[in-house]
Amino acid sequence: MMFYLLFSVIAIQRLVELIIAKRNEKWMKAKGAREYGQNHYRLMVLIHLLFFTSLLAEQSVGRQELNEYWPSLFILFLAAQAGRVWVIASLGRYWNTKIIVLPQADIIAKGPYKFIKHPNYLIVTVELIVIPLIFNAYWTLFIFALLNQFILSIRIPVEERALADTTDYHEIHQGKQRFIPVIKKGEID
């Protein structure tokens, strides 16, 4: 029962995010934004759809029990969801599932972006590990943890190049790591 409840909540969340992304895309493109990485975006979407399909199949075939550590894993999942909301709120109308860059726009350096270059990719990575772990879906965990790193190895350089070519991205994020937050004294508000 918990599996189908969590699965449904995540599916609804993703649909709402796609609606937000589409609205933001329309707004940004009306202001002259350009889209990058269209070819790998289709592959990324396919990977995420297959993740949910695999999770559902592994649960249906194996009727996996909850992991004995599921309460701790669920707290980690909730923390990732809070991080996801923080990312979307921090980027506002600039948040998207696609790489859409508005030339000369100010780079967002607040919220989680104050500490790390790519908090959303870190959050997705955590989710793709934690969700299968909660339900002991180890095949899904193994396959999609690898596929996620593969697609990120393509996506992040494309995104960083697009931002560096059209904005002050490198100046704003100088010294920040891609995934590991670096908090310097006096940075926390």
From TrEMBL:
Membrane topology qualifier: Multi-pass membrane protein
Record field: transmembrane: 40-57, 69-89, 121-147
Record's keyword terms, sorted: Membrane, Transmembrane, Transmembrane helix
Top-level taxonomic group: Bacteria
GO cellular component: membrane
Molecular function terms, GO-annotated: protein C-terminal S-isoprenylcysteine carboxyl O-methyltransferase activity
Entry's localization field: Membrane
Name used for this protein in its record: Isoprenylcysteine carboxyl methyltransferase
